[in-house]
Amino acid sequence: MSRSVWKGPFVDPSLIKKVEQQKTKGTSVPIKTWSRKSTIIPEFIGTSFLIHNGKKFIPIKISEEMVGHKLGEFSPTRQFSGHTPADKKAAQTAESEGGSPAKGAASGAAPGAAPGTAKPATPAKSKEGSSNAKKWKYS
After folding, report:
1. Which residues contact 54 (CB under 8 A, 6 or more apart)?
2. Tens of pLDDT, residues 51-109
3. Given a cut of 60, is residue 19 above it in pLDDT?
4. Beta carbons within 10 angstroms of residue 107's beta carbon
5. Is 40 exposed, middle or buried (0-12, 13-18, 19+ CB in 10 A)?
6. Which domains does the chain have, with CATH numbers?
7. What does each C-alpha distance from 45 to 15, 34, 52, 67, 110 come to in angstroms?
8. What is the model's pTM?
């Protein structure tokens, strides 16, 4: 749920104060902040921030496209370390065998299995013929 319009955007008061001081002095030193929940307002355009992501400070320069978003949106808290080596190895073998498979399609073989040892597909069982299926008659 979004914030009420009559309340206006939330901006940490100390952050507004620091931006105003920086504009009057004319310095371009980045403002260090932990306030990830503060909304970016038009007065912040051109200002540099150091936004804390829980471990370190991420440098951000505010542009017009960022207005209306939160500061925390531009400082990711999680780092993607990549896929496992087995996934990378399976992708390389699929490419070397004659092209990569379609996106989302499973190759059928277990990762790390020898080529050509794919398990045959088992037919799907229908529930209509199962012995424990109840058949109801409505009159």
Report:
1. 77
2. 999 999 999 999 999 999 999 999 999 988 887 777 777 888 888 876 555 555 555 55
3. yes
4. 15
5. buried
6. 13-74 (3.30.860.10)
7. 13, 19, 19, 8, 52
8. 0.60
The amino acid at residue 13 is: P
Report which residue type is found at 46.
G
Would you say residue 9 has pLDDT above 80?
Answer: yes
Unique residue bearing structure tokens 């503060």: 38
- The label of the residue with tokens 């500061």 reads 71
What's the pLDDT score for residue 24? 93
Sheet hosting strand 57-61, strand order edge to edge: 31-33, 48-52, 57-61
What is the distance, to the nearest Å, from the Cα of residue 46 to the centroid of all Cα atoms in its chain?
26
Distance CA 75, CA 45 (A): 17
Q: What is the mean pLDDT of residues 17-45?
A: 94
